[in-house]
Design brief:
The protein is of the alpha/beta class. The chain folds into 2 domains: 20-310 and 428-458, 3-Layer(aba) Sandwich (Alkaline Phosphatase, subunit A); 320-416, no CATH class. The protein has helices at residues 2-14, 31-43, 76-85, 107-113, 129-132, 144-154, 177-183, 192-198, 231-242, 258-264, 268-291, 330-344, 350-361, 371-385, 402-414, 449-458, and strands at 20-26, 60-65, 117-122, 158-161, 186-190, 204-208, 250-256, 296-301, 305-306, 309-310, 393-394, 399-400, 418-419, 424-425, 429-435, 443-446. Strand 5, helix 8 and strand 6 form a beta-alpha-beta unit.
């Protein structure tokens, strides 16, 4: 009888799910983005091989199918809805079924209903598609202001990101998301240092960048200036804030949102630096896991692949180490050239642009170019500056001059990296897992299966 009771207790204990759940989503991060980064890290070290990212070395992994309810090629709101709620929806719909009326309850909302503390963080605006699907329900992902209102209504304990995308209505007909958040009990901190000074006296926290850029995103890792907030800091702040009441446990979603943006621009160097930055944030969670191994689950995946990134452009080799000589994103370089022109009060000459390309991409000096590539840059210079400021090229999230776009295209070409599109693709994305229940995340699975597995394991 005693043995039977002991067996019952042991069985119940063995089936106990994770108390602390980390859900990391690398927006746009397909299998080749991961592999390109690992090859790059080895290549810059002078070795042929790969240097593993921390998350890629997790003991359990699989492949995820990402199609939406109405397209083989998903957008972030449909893919995010699937990852958050286990429900397929149409592209552009956020947290609702394709009828645009029926809300899809997310695992974050389920966890909160069970008394679990919830944290949502991102490198983009906090009312963007991927963070939004965990707390909001809108017929269109573009309803940023309404998504922001639902953020304040969610009651989740922690939010971290660059800023609100649309904090006020066009006609200023309401108080705005900031005042709404404060009235709902959120303390607003601007930057990581401000968070540390305000955290102890707060019950709910909204951590935003001190000086967000005009697009309300955190800076790319490659462009980041000292003092600017990082996903690692948001993750550390979220853990600190969640552990104010460790008995309740927590569910935490952290998004590396700008991997996607770099891939939309086919900017290989920036993509790789964003993936490394994403891994650095996961290291913060991994340190927590090492202290709470039996109670923690970490899942790393992506909503979709962006750019159809290829690890070859026809030759049987890669030359990714040249990407180390690019020291700013294409968008930042475009802004930089425009600023240089304003400073001198004239159109930049070819010699001046050539010197900037040498300084910021390593061209001709550290990165050898063919005569054809040099001629292409020269002709692009004429298109861009020859008759005054030229027409800007429209990327998914920003505009760049043709010179900057051509520079990133050529350095990808030299690196032997190809791009199939400037939008999303329908390819597999990876999933990696470690911790309590991680063995459930192996093999091929649909994106809708991931939150259902989390829900079952954690008891939401």
């Amino acid at each position: 009888m005693i043995m039977a009771m002991m067996l019952i207790v042991f069985t119940a204990s063995a089936k106990k799910g994770p108390k602390y759940v980390f859900y990391f989503i690398g927006d746009g991060m397909g299998v080749n983005q991961v592999m390109a980064t690992q090859y790059y890290l080895s290549d810059v070290g002078g070795k042929l091989g790969y240097k593993p990212l921390l998350f890629a070395g997790f003991p359990y992994s699989g492949y995820v199918i990402t199609h939406s309810a109405n397209s083989y090629v998903t957008d972030s709101s449909a893919a995010g809805t699937a990852l958050a709620s286990g429900q397929k929806t149409d592209n552009n719909v956020l947290g609702m079924l394709p009828d645009k009326e029926t809300p899809c309850k997310s695992i974050a909302e389920m966890a909160h209903d069970k008394g679990v503390r919830v944290a949502i963080g991102t490198t983009v605006c906090i009312d963007h598609a991927t963070p939004g699907v965990f707390y909001a329900h809108q017929a269109s992902r573009n309803n940023y202001h309404e998504i922001g209102i639902q953020l304040t209504e969610s009651g989740f304990e922690f939010f971290g990101g660059a800023d609100f995308h649309t904090p006020f209505t066009k006609d200023n007909s309401d108080e705005g998301n900031y005042i709404q958040a404060e009235k709902a009990g959120y303390t607003i901190a601007r930057g990581y240092s401000d968070y540390k000074s305000k955290a102890s006296g707060s019950n709910k926290m909204l951590l935003l960048e001190k000086n967000p850029n005009s697009d309300h995103y955190l800076s790319y890792a490659i462009d980041r200036k000292e003092g600017e907030m990082t996903l690692s800091e948001i993750t550390a702040a979220a853990i600190d804030f969640m552990m104010k009441d460790p008995k309740k446990g927590f569910f935490m979603m952290m998004e590396g949102g700008k991997i996607d943006m770099a891939c939309h621009g086919n900017d290989a160097a920036t993509t790789i630096q964003e993936t490394i930055d994403f891994d650095n944030a996961i290291k913060i969670a991994y340190d927590f896991y090492l202290k709470h191994k039996k109670e923690t689950l970490i899942i790393v995946t992506a909503d979709h692949e962006t750019g159809a990134m290829g690890l070859s452009n026809g030759a049987y080799r890669l030359n990714s180490q040249v990407l180390q000589y690019q020291d700013m994103s294409e968008g930042e370089f475009s802004t930089y050239l425009e600023k240089k022109g304003r400073e001198i009060g004239d159109i930049l000459t070819w010699d001046e642009v050539q010197e900037e390309l040498k300084q910021h991409f390593g061209f001709w000096d550290k990165v050898k170019l063919s005569d054809r590539q040099t001629d292409k840059l020269r002709s692009t210079y004429v298109e861009t500056f020859g008759m005054g400021p030229g027409e800007l090229k429209e990327e998914e999230y920003y505009k760049v001059d043709k010179m900057s776009d051509e520079a990133t295209r050529i350095i990808s070409e030299v690196a032997q990296i190809s791009w199939g599109t400037g939008t999303h693709s329908g390819g597999y994305v990876p999933v990696f897992a470690i911790g309590a229940g991680a063995e459930q995340f192996t093999g091929q699975m649909d994106n809708t299966e991931i939150p259902m597995k989390i829900k079952k394991l954690a008891g939401y």
